[in-house]
Write a structure and sequence with these properties.
Elements lengths: L1 E4 L45 H4 L5 E8 L2 H8 L44 H8 L5 E4 L6 E5 L2 E11 L5 E12 L8 E10 L9 E10 L3 E5 L5 E6 L7 E5 L15 E6 L2 E6 H21 L9 E9 L3 E12 L2 H12 L11 E10 L3 E7 L6 E3 L29 H6 L8 E4 L2 E3 L6 E6 L5 E6 L4 E5 L4 E7 L5 E8 L24 E9 L4 E6 L5 E6 L5 E3 L24 E4 L4 E6 L13 H16 L5 H14 L3 H12 L6 H17 L7 H25 L10 H8 L3 H19 L15 H7 E4 L2 E4 L4 H16 L5 H11 L3 H14 L1 H6 L2 H14 L16 H12 L3 H29 L6 H35 L22 H6 L4 H13 L3 H13 L14 H7 L5 H11 L6 H18 L4 H13 L3 H30 L5 H7 L4 H24 L23 H6 L6 H19 L13 H6 L17 H23 L5 H4 L13 H11 L4 H14 L3 H8 L5 H21 L4 H9 L2 H8 L13 H14 L7 H18 L1
Parallel strand pairs: 1-24, 2-6, 14-19
Antiparallel strand pairs: 2-31, 3-4, 4-5, 5-6, 7-8, 8-9, 9-10, 11-12, 12-13, 13-14, 14-18, 15-16, 16-17, 17-20, 21-22, 22-23, 23-24, 25-26, 26-27, 27-28, 29-30, 30-31, 32-33
Helix pairs in contact: 7-8, 7-9, 8-10, 9-11, 10-11, 11-16, 13-22, 15-17, 17-19, 17-20, 17-21, 19-21, 20-21, 20-22, 21-22, 22-27, 24-28, 25-27, 28-29, 28-30, 29-32, 30-32, 32-34, 36-38, 36-39, 38-39, 39-40, 39-41, 41-44, 44-45
Length: about 1450
């Protein structure tokens, strides 16, 4: 038996690159943070920079996935690790030694003894090594991962996420987590993720869903879906489940190999159960369908087919730790006779056909490895009725252990279920046939190879043994791998990589023979943190990687369940055979092993090739001053490489080098090409020869283009505006208009554009050039590259030509002869032109160069097909128009379209002349066709020019901005506007243009008056009337306009260019909608909503106004409005800021403004409903150039589609809104808004405003009337107080009252209007208002308001009391001598009445006596003479006159 040390030999890493290591290489220690791989350089888990050239050469480890938040899973499974544990809180596990010297594999890797670990570091150690204590399973299709510990489990699913570098990568994220235990005290011992094949025709052979199989200490095996729903629960043996393993279908590699059935094997301490794969597949599908039906429609008792399984009681063995089910095997005749002799002796009889047997191998103790053989057909399969776990009423598809789930009900109902456990069938005895007896050795794990011929076993001595399964012997042993984790990698040979050899007559000597298969054993040694790959059976180590000490190696060993020999060939899943989970870095890695590493040294030329490639990679990294010597050395290296594939990779790495100059790259490629041509034709690889020829062709093209760009070439001919007009076929007026338009665009565009001075246009490294282009036969194509890279390539070819610094004719000829198609060149030219707008607008000469280049490209072969149907549109010009339509640089696009139009007309004219000369006097039909084609293409050009001109003007407007912003700028207003293109406007629908302008108006926060003013200027503009005579509107607008700059002029131009799309009502409608949309994003910005209502009020057509208001209400307002109503009704007063933010989503201040704006909107809606009957609905036209627009329906069109509102219902909501606004505006208390309405009124609220609702009618209950009246009087008092309250200090009393909510309502008028709707006496409200005005000493306003009161007698009585209070204050509270004397002279009845008055009720007692005298006279006027208090009023006149005399 061959024995290999895991690292003791000096040259243990000698086969890392497949070639022998030098004698001086010494392997240093792995532990203690030292580099653990020979050669002085350890491989980390990340692919190196040279992975491109060595990827197919050497063994490598590659990261393919990462974890989104692995720490969250750890904290869920290990709650004690969430916080730092105090020192000494966790005990050290005595079974796990922390001193390297205690381990049986020796301390050869340590030069110094390691100190014992401190107890304080134990928790820190567990935080990194926690994965070793978990049960892990990864689906072979990488679509699910399970991490479990004790009762808990986490299911992880892959998701595509953007990494920190901006690239998309796959990350495992938590899909479900929870507890799996059903019975008390049971823990998870093993888990499997088995993907089940889809039964659909469209996805044959692909995985449909993944089943999670979990084994428990109670003996139960349970099956779950990816979302944690329990499907099956089986108790097949009353003992702990030790291990779960699965075998899926594999196509036999040779005709003689027995086809294996699918199965799930379950290992118990003294038994093994195998469940037939087909039976399990059908049962799981049936259970999943049953759960889905139960979730959808309740309980349906459909029993799935029973599970077929076999149960063997393993005898003559002490302990079993792990097992491997080898499958059905058939003995050879010799082995059959040998076995029969051993069992039956010399006279044993033998059957003619060898019996089929199922083989099982166990590892444990006594024997260390046991071999069991069960004859097929000797026992009948047992049938187990599936314990289908479907709840009678499925409350949740997500399983929850705490709340009772899927058949197990609640915790209280659990006990009777546990008592009645399913019947457990007895096991069929199966004795061990033979084993590897070793009383001191205990096996820990066994891992079967993919082809079922070998198995790797680990033991407690730190050894890894390789078993020959068929012969039952150990054929190899590795030392020094304590706690090792093992797996297998099977590699199939790629036939294209073979080197044909003339002398080799074997089937493997040519590229037509069968593919060979190699197996590699992967060993992870966590104690040393090293991952090794070994070639089996007796091969060397081919790879070693430092990966860390806390990883887990996962090897599923199976694929998709439910496939057969047909479906398994239809789709090959992209799986990784081996997965290394690193909890420290949160990554998942796989090992890539090339097939050639399995070949022996005599057969493999790769060892030398790889050595040369490695040397080449090192050479390319060195900075050598002598380029010639480096070039010579590189040539020697690449010529010495034998394999064509390796040679190709070497050449690719050379061409990708940034250090080598162009001449060096060309010479090396040419040398290799010449060498290949001189070889015999049979031994030359055609692919490599073609690759060299293609690269050489690209290098020659690069050289030619670079030389043309470096030549000193200047156009000395002068270029005038007249020349430009002739070139573009424009008259003088059209040219001036174009120049003026571009000048305005340039001025506004330069304010927003950013230009970096270090941009080097027209410069492209040869490495980048080769990356962008590829050769196919005689043509050169461009690879799929980004837009910036496309522009860089175009600039390399055309930038100098566009500036007149390079010969246009020579460049076009060079590119055409190289094999670049005219369409490709046109695409490159347009990408450069359209992306370099700023440079082009600054240099008009570039237009001439573009014209020349476009003419040359158009005259190339296959540019414009002569046989093209003349009545159709030319694809050549259509390509150019498409580029202009999609471009967001409208200035460059407009110029490009003018040049294209000019060249198209020029070429069409020349073709027409040629036709007329050659076919003179012939049938004129062909000539007519050509004229039709000319006119059709010309019409498309004219349409495009109009569209681009419109788009340019619009973009100029959107770039302009206000010079000074008076109001604070919101973050929403600071977001940049997207740039426009004709394509965007064509796809933006009929309202796209108005929507773009509305977004700009919102960003600039222009008032609606500015829009109206610009529109008036447009209407007033004509040649006869001077512009200065236009009325400028209000003073406020004039002040604003001072800071507007060119905005009014640009708006006028936009109105003229878009008379339909920017019709004023349409624009106001879009502005209104834009403001309310932005307000909805940030409701704290109340001014946005206020501005939206302003725009709404400026809409003149009532049909549009009605529709927009109704859409605003339904989309944005009614939900917040109802939330505000219920909140205020709940608290019974104006709610505090915290409650407003919680329930309505805005502050109390913003909510007050919101309610005020809602009131404005409802009132506008009612006014529009009245006005819409008097006017017709507008006709929404579109400009001729934009008739082909497609996309969403415009806001104005949607508004016109809205139904008529139900006026009384809107009025009903308006009343509620007024009440809410009053409560918030004046912070009223003890008011429940909904209590002011009866049940009919409450039910009608927040319903669709277009629906007919049952509203209150007839006489209202007096109790409601009383409550409403009290509320209205409160509002009047609060309104007067807010307006006329006088502060005690004079400074503040002189200030005018202000409101934080902008323009306030006329509350007295609103209160009287509310009284009318609420059936409250309007006169009562008016009288209260007059009384409050006199109460606050505002007698002049009181006299005005008094005129509107009807019942003046009652009012006079109220004012009489107020007069008495004023006199009582003057006489009793001033305490002067004159006052006392006057009091003595007054009539006794008057004195008594005055003493009864309480002046404290007066809000403003300090009123001049003359004013009070006027009030008494007013009372006398209002009181009839027969009134009971008339005499009292007369006495008051005398008293007032007596008081006022001393002051005279």
């Amino acid at each position: 038996m061959h024995t290999a040390s895991g690292g003791g030999a000096a040259c243990a890493d000698s086969f890392r690159f497949g070639f022998p290591a030098p004698a001086w290489v010494k392997l240093s220690g792995v532990g203690g943070g030292r580099r653990g791989v020979a050669g002085g350089r350890a491989w980390s888990g990340k692919p190196s920079a040279r992975a491109g050239c060595l990827g197919a050469m050497a063994c490598s480890i590659v990261q393919f996935c990462s974890f989104q938040d692995l720490q969250a899973s750890r904290d869920f499974l290990f709650p004690h690790l969430r916080e730092e544990t105090p020192s000494g809180a966790l005990r050290r596990d005595p079974s796990k030694s922390t001193n390297w010297e205690d381990d049986s594999w020796g301390a050869w890797e340590e030069t110094e003894p390691q100190e014992p670990e401190e107890e304080g570091n134990t928790c820190k150690s567990q935080k990194t090594s926690w994965l070793q204590d978990c049960v892990l399973s990864l689906s072979p299709t990488n679509d699910l991962m399970v991490i479990a510990r004790e009762q808990k489990a986490v299911f992880l699913v892959p998701k595509w996420k953007h990494s920190d570098k901006g690239k998309e990568e796959m990350q495992f994220a938590v899909g479900w987590s929870g507890s799996l235990n059903v019975e008390e005290g049971e823990h998870v011992t093993s888990a499997l993720c088995i993907p089940l094949a889809s039964q659909k025709r469209s996805s044959t052979g692909r995985p449909d869903w993944t089943c999670i199989v979990v084994g428990f200490t109670s003996g139960y095996v349970r099956f779950y879906t990816e979302s944690g729903v329990l499907l099956l629960a089986q108790l097949l043996n009353e003992d702990t489940v030790l291990q779960l393993k699965c075998r899926t279908y594999e196509i036999p590699r040779h005709p003689g190999v027995t086809e294996q059935n699918e199965e799930l094997s379950i290992l118990y301490p003294a038994a093994i159960v195998t469940i037939d794969g087909f039976s399990l597949f059908q049962s799981l599908r049936a259970c999943r369908n049953q759960v889905a039906k139960a979730a959808a429609s309740g309980n349906e008792n459909i029993q799935p087919p029973p599970l077929a399984y076999k149960k063997w009681g393993l005898q003559d063995i002490d302990t079993i730790i792990d097992h491997a089910s080898i499958g059905i095997m058939t003995l050879s005749p010799f082995d059959q006779m040998k076995t029969a002799s051993n069992i039956g002796g010399f006279n044993a009889t033998i059957k003619n056909s060898p019996p089929a047997m199922s083989q099982y191998i166990t590892v444990g103790s006594n024997p260390f490895t046991g071999f069991f053989y069960a004859l097929e057909g000797s026992t009948q399969p047992l049938l187990s009725h599936v314990a289908l776990a479907v709840a009678s009423k499925l409350t949740s598809v997500l399983f929850n252990a705490a709340s009772g789930w899927l058949g197990w009900k609640s915790k209280h109902d659990e006990e009777p279920v546990q008592k009645q456990k399913p019947k457990v069938e007895p096991a069929t005895p199966l004795a061990v046939r033979f084993g590897l007896p070793d009383s001191r050795r205990h096996g820990e794990s066994i891992c079967l190879s993919p082809c079922n011929t070998l198995a790797a076993v680990t033991d407690d001595f730190g050894r890894v043994l390789l078993l020959d399964v068929a012969r039952g012997i150990a054929i190899r042993m590795w030392k020094g791998y304590r706690d090792a984790q093992i797996g297998w990698i099977q590699i199939v040979e790629d036939l294209h990589e073979r080197v044909p050899e003339k002398v080799d007559l074997s089937p493997f000597g040519n590229t037509q023979g069968p593919s060979r298969v190699a197996q590699f054993l992967v060993i992870y040694a966590p104690r040393r943190g090293i991952l090794e790959v070994w070639s089996t059976q007796q091969g060397p180590r081919v790879g070693a990687f430092n990966v860390g000490k806390h990883c887990r190696l996962l090897y599923p060993g199976y694929k998709i369940m439910g496939l057969n020999n047909v479906t398994s060939q239809s789709w090959q899943p992209q799986t990784h055979q081996i997965c290394l989970v690193d909890p420290v870095s949160g990554s998942m890695k796989t090992v890539v092993v090339p097939f050639h590493l399995a070949l022996s040294d005599k057969k493999s030329e790769r060892a030398k090739d790889m050595h040369l490639v490695k040397k080449l990679a090192a050479l390319l990294k060195t900075k050598s001053p002598n380029v010639d010597s480096v070039e010579t050395e590189i040539k020697e290296l690449i010529l010495d490489i034998k394999y064509p594939a390796t040679k190709k990779q070497a050449l690719e790495s050379i061409l990708a080098s940034e250090r080598l100059p162009f001449s060096c790259l060309r010479n090396i490629t040419q040398t290799l090409m010449d060498t290949l041509k001189n070889q015999e034709l049979e031994s030359v690889d055609e692919g490599l020869l073609q690759f060299c020829a293609n690269k050489l062709k690209l290098l020659h093209l690069y050289e030619s283009a670079s030389q043309l760009n470096s030549l000193d070439f200047q156009l000395d001919t002068p270029f005038s505006d007249n020349d430009l007009a002739v070139l573009l076929r424009l008259d003088e007026k059209e040219l001036l208009k174009l120049q003026a338009l571009l000048e305005k665009y340039k001025q506004e565009n330069t304010r927003t554009a950013v230009r970096f001075s270090d941009d080097k246009d027209g410069v492209l490294p040869v490495k980048t050039f080769l990356e962008y282009l590829e050769c196919e036969k005689d043509a050169i194509n461009i690879k799929k590259i980004s837009e910036d890279e496309y522009v860089a390539l175009g600039s390399f070819f055309f930038w100098k030509c566009l500036h007149g610094e390079s010969s246009t004719e020579d460049m076009c000829h060079t590119l055409e002869s190289a094999g670049l198609s005219p369409q490709l060149l046109l695409s490159l030219l347009l990408s450069v032109w359209l992306s370099k707008e700023k440079d082009i607008l600054d240099k008009p000469r570039t237009i001439c160069c573009l014209h020349t280049m476009l003419s040359l490209l158009s005259r190339m072969k296959v540019a414009i097909d002569d046989t093209w149907d003349s009545q159709s549109v030319s694809p050549w010009w259509q390509q150019m128009r498409s580029a202009c339509i999609q471009s967001e640089n409208n200035g460059a696009a407009l110029l490009c379209a003018h040049v294209g139009h000019s060249v198209a007309v020029q070429i069409s004219s020349s073709v027409t002349e040629k036709v007329s000369h050659t076919v003179a006097g012939a049938d004129s039909e062909a000539l007519t066709d050509s004229w039709e084609a000319l006119s059709l293409d010309t019409e498309y050009w004219k349409l495009l020019l109009k569209q681009l001109e419109d788009c340019l003007l619009l973009q100029t407007l959107l770039h302009s901005r206000v010079n000074a912003r008076p109001s604070p700028v919101s973050s929403l207003q600071s977001e940049p506007l997207p740039r426009l293109s004709v394509r965007k406007l064509l796809e933006g629908g009929k309202g796209g243009i108005a929507d773009s302008v509305a977004k700009w108006i919102f960003k600039q926060d222009l008032s609606p008056e500015v829009l109206c003013l610009a529109n008036k200027e447009r209407d007033a503009e004509n040649p006869d009337e001077p512009k200065e005579g236009i009325p400028r509107g209000s003073t406020e607008v004039s002040e604003v306009e001072m800071d507007l700059g060119v905005i009014p002029d640009l708006l006028c131009l936009a109105y003229q260019q878009f008379p339909c799309s920017l019709e004023l009502d349409v624009l106001h409608a879009h502005c209104c909608w834009e403001y309310v949309v932005q307000w909805n994003k940030d409701p704290e910005e109340a001014r946005f909503f206020v501005r939206s209502i302003e725009h709404l009020k400026h809409i003149l057509n009532a049909h549009v106004q009605n529709g927009i208001a109704l859409m605003m209400w339904n989309t944005f307002l009614v939900k917040r409005f109802s939330a505000a109503t219920y909140l205020m009704d709940k608290v019974g007063k104006s709610p505090k800021d915290r409650l407003c933010r919680r329930d309505v989503g805005m502050s109390d201040t913003a909510m007050t403004s919101f309610l005020g704006s809602c009131l404005d909107l409802l009132q506008t809606l009612m006014e529009a409903d009245v006005s819409r009957d008097e006017m017709q609905a507008p006709v929404l036209d579109t400009e001729d150039a934009w008739l082909t627009v497609e996309g969403p329906v415009s806001i104005a069109e949607l508004a016109l589609e809205q139904r008529h509102i139900h006026y009384p219902l809107v009025e009903h909501h308006s009343v509620l809104c007024s009440i809410l606004y009053a409560v918030m505006r004046f912070s009223l208390k003890a008011v429940k808004p909904l209590s002011l309405f009866d049940s009919k009124g409450k039910n009608a609220f927040f319903k669709d405003l277009t629906s007919i609702q049952l509203l209150p009618s007839g006489e209202m209950d007096p109790n409601f009337i009383s409550i409403r009246q009290q509320f209205l009087l409160k509002v009047i008092s609060a309104a007067v107080q807010a307006q006329h309250a006088v502060a005690k200090d004079k400074a503040s009393s002189e200030k005018a009252p202000t409101t934080p909510f902008g323009k306030d309502q006329d509350w007295p008028v609103l209160a009287v209007d509310l009284a009318h709707h609420l059936q409250v006496s309007e006169d009562t409200v008016r009288r209260h208002y007059v009384g409050e005005l006199y109460n606050y000493g505002v007698d002049h306003l009181g006299e005005e308001a008094l005129l509107q009161v009807h019942d003046k007698e009652v009012l006079a009585s109220q004012l009489l009391v107020l007069t008495g209070q004023r006199l009582a204050h003057a006489l009793f509270h001033t305490q002067t001598k004159e006052g006392m004397e006057l009091l003595a002279r007054l009539p006794p009845t008057l004195c008594t009445w005055l003493k009864a008055m309480d002046p404290q009720d007066l809000q403003n007692p300090e009123v001049p006596i003359a004013t009070t005298a006027n009030l008494v006279n007013k009372v006398i006027e209002l009181l009839p003479e027969n009134h009971g208090q008339y005499s009292l009023a007369l006495h008051l006149i005398e008293a007032v006159e007596a008081i006022s005399l001393p002051s005279l």
